[in-house]
Amino acid sequence: MTKAYLNDLLPWLQEKGICNLFIVLGDSFNPNRSDFKTSSEMISYIKAKTLDYFCIGVAGFPYDDCKITALKEKIDLGADFVISQAFFEANIYKNYLEKCKDAKIDVPIIPGIFPFQSQKELDMFLKLCKVEVTDEFKMKLEGENVMDIIENLVLDLHNNLNVKHFHFFTINKLEITCDLVKKIQLSL
Q1: Mind giving me the DSSP string for the chain?
Q2: Which GO terms fall under molecular function for this chain's record (predicted)?
Q3: What pTM was computed for the model?
Q4: pLDDT tens, position by position, for the chain (188 residues)?
């Protein structure tokens, strides 16, 4: 992302009535081709150009405590909400919320949910995102339907942590995710 491109893009987005942005560096980020070396720099630039027009979201990483300081910096620069990387156990999210609270991060942290359908899909996700799951979760996979596991995770977060908003990583599986959401709605 260059400043010149962003200078053209921001007014265009405003003209179209788009006011929510999700700022991430992305998997193929190349600092040699960008005017911004970090997402914090981009957030600061956007806020300087547009004040509070845009509601800015950033990524949160429940499995990486080292990134909480960088997350706090993004919030201090004007990020308005966080979408977490996908996780598979409610205690991971709960611990993450506590660590963020300790770091004085006080914006909504929306849990990221990845509705995988098979062990192979899960393994690919775990490898790609460098995420590990507990032995307890692995044992759960052997005895339960994987979509039931995801449904129970969402219901657990809703019922026990009062979570009202979720981000589903559909990864081109919209129909499966829609079916999951309908099933969850019936259980609420």
Answers
A1: --HHHHHHHHHHHHHTT--EEEE---TT--GGG-S-SSHHHHHHHHHHHHTTSSEEEEEE-TT-GGGHHHHHHHHHHT--EEEEEE-S-HHHHHHHHHHHHHTT--S-EEEEE----SHHHHHHHHHHHT----HHHHHHHHHS-HHHHHHHHHHHHHHHH-----EE--TT-HHHHHHHHHHHHHH-
A2: FAD binding; methylenetetrahydrofolate reductase [NAD(P)H] activity
A3: 0.91
A4: 889 999 999 999 999 999 999 998 766 667 677 888 889 999 999 999 999 999 999 999 999 999 999 999 999 999 999 999 999 999 999 999 999 999 999 999 999 999 988 888 889 988 988 888 888 998 888 888 889 999 999 999 999 999 999 999 988 889 999 999 999 999 88
**CATH topology assigned to domain 3-187:** TIM Barrel (3.20.20)
Residue type, 42: M
